[in-house]
Amino acid sequence: MSTILDTDGEALLGALRGLLAAKGLATPAEVAERLALTERASPAQGARIVAKAWTDPDFRTRLLADGTATVEALGIPMRGAPPLGVLENTTALHHLVVCTLCSCYPRAVLGYPPFWYKSAGYRARAVRDPRGLIAEWGTVLPAGTTIRVVDSTADYRWMVLPLRPAGTDGWNEAALAALVREGDMVGVTVPVAP
Amino acid sequence: MTDLSPGTRVRVKDDWPEARGPCHIRTPHYVRGRQGVVVRRLGAFPNPEDLAFARPAPIRALYHVRFDETVLWPDGRAGDDLLVEIFEHWLELA
């Protein structure tokens, strides 16, 4: 007997899409639109948000108050996505995001979670030994900086607004965005100027 | 439960529904029975414990709750802490 485990994936997907359309739950056009949005989401979107927050104080204030509405105004579609919370790193406080239960990740702004984010090792160690974990990424926080782990367990998705690196005065948004990596917005790393 | 204001001391219920049968829980094991502080109310959402089983899901308040790392782990570092989203029905006043 055929089960869901040995059914050809393409056939299963086709049947599911057919059912979604037949039941009026999602039209083929809506599914295609969602696929396109998912493909477009990437860490580059997050980096653009970070660079704008570094150069536009008013934008930063709004971003920290209401992530979803503020990035939507930048043209990043958030419809259907969970609310976005933005965690601001300061010289006193560093944030590290994890989802210990599964792999909750701010996909609308960062794209697919990286493989390590979903690993059992990362999920367990981020809450138990955050400093030891980020040290393995080469991240050592200055003395006096405390670390706040943010376990993403329910209906919000969280991204980190890292500290703007020293030596970037006068840089434009595009140059700043090019410095920001995926890990900087999770908190395992911090951006540095070359 | 009435709204919990920021600063309210709370304890996560020391409850283990997974020992009683199939369930879906968004409250990590390591915070159960631990004492923390409400940071803010994040909003209200259909209870995922019911959504997961396609049951009618009542709307529940969701809070960001902060715990000192030293409260969570015997080797937790003083000064470091953790924020986690906890639904109201998992919280009791501490």
Secondary-structure topology with pairs:
The complex is a heterodimer of chains A (194) and B (94).
Chain A: H1 9-22, H2 28-40, H3 43-55, H4 57-65, H5 67-72, E1 84-88, E2 93-98, H6 107-110, H7 120-128, H8 130-135, E3 146-151, E4 157-161, H9 173-177
Parallel strand pairs in A: 1-4, 2-3
Helix pairs in contact in A: 3-4
Chain B: E1 9-12, E2 35-46, H1 48-51, E3 59-68, H2 69-72, E4 81-87, E5 91-93
Antiparallel strand pairs in B: 1-2, 1-5, 2-3, 3-4
Which short descriptors sum up this protein?
heterodimer; A: 194 residues; alpha/beta; two-stranded parallel ribbon; globular; B: 94 residues; mainly beta; five-stranded antiparallel β-sheet; 2 helices
Q: Helicity level of chain A, as a percent range?
A: 40-55%
Rg of chain B to the nearest angstrom?
A: 14 Å
Structural class by SSE content of chain A = alpha/beta
Strand order of the largest sheet of chain A: 1-4
Low-confidence stretches of chain A: none
Enumerate the strands of the largest sheet of chain B in spatial order, edge to edge or round the barrel: 4-3-2-1-5
Strand proportion of chain B, as a percent range, falls in: 35-45%
| Largest interchain contact | A-B, 20 and 24 residues
The total count of strands of chain A amounts to 4
**Which structural class do you get from the secondary structure elements of chain B?**
mainly beta
Give a short overview.
The complex is a heterodimer of chains A (194) and B (94). Chain A has 194 residues and is of the alpha/beta class.
Write up this protein.
The complex is a heterodimer of chains A (194) and B (94). Chain A is an alpha/beta fold and 194 residues long. In chain A, 41% of the residues lie in helices and 11% in strands. Chain A contains nine helices and four strands. In chain A, the strands form two sheets. A two-stranded parallel sheet of chain A has the order 1-4. In chain A, strands 2-3 form a two-stranded parallel ribbon. In chain A, helix 3 packs across helix 4. The radius of gyration of chain A is 19 Å and the shape is globular. The mean pLDDT of chain A is 94. By secondary structure, chain B is mainly β. Chain B is built from two helices and five strands. Chain B has a five-stranded antiparallel β-sheet with strand order 4-3-2-1-5. Chain B starts with 8 loop residues before the first strand and ends with a strand. The model of chain B has no long low-confidence stretch (mean pLDDT 96). Classes of the chains: A alpha/beta (194), B mainly beta (94). At the A-B interface, strand 3 of A face strand 2 and strand 4 of B. Strand 3 (146-151) of chain A pairs parallel with strand 4 (81-87) of chain B, so a sheet runs across the interface.
